[in-house]
Amino acid sequence: MSATRKRPPVLPSKPKEQVNKKGLIWLISIFGAVVVIVSLLLIFSQ
Fold first, then answer.
1. What does the DSSP 8-state code read for residue 6?
2. Which of 6, 8, 23, 46 is deepest in the core (most CB within 10 A)?
């Protein structure tokens, strides 16, 4: 009785931490830009 072994995945799995880091940096930068733009609009609209 020989059990069939599972084959290892052909494509090496990329570390998910790097992708999440990039996404986090993008979100923070976009949020920061929006805050700066809104604050500038509020200051100059008065």
1. P
2. 23
What does 18-29 look like in DSSP terms, one character per residue? HHHHHHHHHHHH
- Tokens encoding 9: 């995945």
> Count of CB atoms within 10 A of residue 23's CB?
10
Taking only the tens place, the pLDDT of each residue in 11-21 is: 666 666 656 78
| Dist. CA 36–CA 25, nearest whole Å | 16
Query: Strand locations in the chain, DSSP E?
Result: none
Based on the number of CB atoms within 10 Å of its own CB, is 32 exposed (0-12), middle (13-18) or buried (19 or more)?
Answer: exposed
Q: Is the pTM of this model over 0.70?
A: no
